[in-house]
Amino acid sequence: MLVTISFYLLAFVAIASALMVVLARNPVHSVMFLITVFFSAAGLFILMGAEFLALLLVMVYVGAVAVLFLFVVMMLDVDFAELKAGFIQYVPIGLILAIILLAEIILVGATYFTGATKELVKYDDDKTNLERFGEVLYTDYAFFFEAAGLILLVALVGAVVLTLQHRDGVRKQDANEQIARTRETAIEMVDIESGKGVGS
Question: How far apart, in whole angstroms, are the C-alpha atoms of residue 193 and residue 200?
């Protein structure tokens, strides 16, 4: 019974928050609802017995969302004075979201520690969750894992190329010229007469 209540509550909050991510006009609110979606999905992973995936979801995605939040604030040039002026009117919404997250944490924790999650997923061996995840990821889905890494590499290179700006008057590094340098071309011997140096 506790597992069923937790599942429907987490699923409802995840779906409602996902809709609010799209419907919210304020980008800051969208990010906050997205964090709620991640927490709800992590709770669902715990109910399925995938604690490692839940930990990754919270650590990686919620941490990345914090960085995304900073980028949104910087790119959109949000007026902090205006945000602070309307802080009081958003306190009820913040309290509601905090209560929902607290209820989710309590339900998931109670479900996990009572052992009810073991009824959902049963294994014949004694391998840990992380061992099973590694075996499936690096054997059955090894090609897709490598393909995802290649796609991310291409995206990284593409982002650098798109944001690279060519400006005049900027000294650029020529690797070929540096590698081709020899002692004769790199060193210049100058015979300075006494009393005619730079400090004289």
Answer: 11
In a domain, 72, yes or no: yes
The domain containing residue 140 runs over which residues? 123-165
What number of other Cβ atoms are within 10 A of residue 17's Cβ?
23
- 0.85 exceeded by pTM: no
Please tell me whether residue 124 adopts helix, strand or coil conformation.
coil
Distance CA 36, CA 62 (A): 9
Give the pLDDT band of residue 151 (cuts 50, 70, 90). Answer: very high
Distances (CA, A) of 106 to 5, 99, 111, 172: 12, 10, 8, 57
Please state, in angstroms and as integers, the Cα–Cα distance from residue 96 to each residue in 8, 33, 184, following that order.
18, 12, 74
65 and 149 together in one domain: no
